[in-house]
Write a structure and sequence with these properties.
Layout: E1 35-36, H1 42-54, E2 60-61, E3 76-80, E4 87-91, E5 98-99, E6 112-116, E7 119-123, E8 130-134, E9 141-142, E10 155-159, E11 164-168, E12 175-179, E13 186-187, E14 200-204, E15 209-213
Parallel strand pairs: 1-2
Antiparallel strand pairs: 3-4, 5-6, 6-7, 7-8, 9-10, 10-11, 11-12, 13-14, 14-15
Length: about 220
């Protein structure tokens, strides 16, 4: 049941349900009014909550047989599958991590991944195994891309301090580096020439110019 007015809600045992912390990460108009309670698993609650998020309406979702509150914890990935609209949540990372999702195992699905002070933590969708790689420095920006065209994302970082890209090719394990960009640039990877390989690119806010290093013709 959805109740947007009552300030005291009772579970099936007659005891008052304790609200969780405000869900500030949820895209609703008034996130401070979003109080979510769990019963019978996360997906059941999500199915009740998602329609209210879509309509942009603040809502409080209450269900029977309270087990434990769903809190908006840092490091949790919230996923809504395009194929069936199923919702799921997965804990992977901490609040200070930099996000780096990409298809690292080449199964056609994006893998959850974070970059933490030079260490990559990747959860591979193909086998459910964790992959940990040391590559980069704390101030680097993770920018994975398929630079070698093998269908798998290569681990790569952009170092703002010297405008250099560093990558680890998934096909051979070879290390590569190229100076392309400057401090203050925004790294914007993409396959700009359509050859199936990721191209290095930066956007320079100071002059609103894009600089693209195309893999097809250098």
């Amino acid at each position: 049941m959805v109740d947007q007015n009552s300030s005291h809600d009772l579970g099936s045992d007659g005891k008052e349900l304790r609200p969780v912390l405000p869900c500030h990460i949820l895209p609703i108009d008034e996130p401070d009014k979003c109080l979510v309670y769990e019963s019978g698993g996360l997906e059941r609650v999500a199915r009740s909550l998602i329609p209210h998020i879509v309509r942009g309406q603040p809502a409080k979702v209450v269900v029977n047989q309270l087990k434990q509150p769903i809190r908006c914890r840092p490091g949790v990935w919230h996923q809504l599958d395009s194929s069936n609209n199923n919702y799921s949540a997965f804990k992977w990372g901490i609040s200070s991590d930099k996000l780096a999702p990409a298809d690292y195992d080449g199964d056609g699905k994006t893998d959850r991944a974070v970059f933490r002070d030079g260490v990559w933590y990747i959860y591979q969708s193909s086998n459910g195994q964790a992959r940990i790689e040391n590559f980069g420095l704390a101030g680097d920006l993770p920018r994975p891309g398929d630079f070698d065209g093998d269908g798998k994302a290569d681990i790569s970082v952009f170092r703002p301090s010297n405008g250099t890209w560093y990558r680890l090719n998934s096909s051979t394990g070879a290390f590569g580096a190229i100076q392309f960009g400057a401090n203050g640039d925004v790294p914007m990877l993409g396959d700009y020439d359509g050859d199936g390989k990721t191209d290095f690119a930066v956007f320079r806010p100071s002059n609103s110019v894009w600089y693209i290093y195309r893999s097809s013709d250098n």
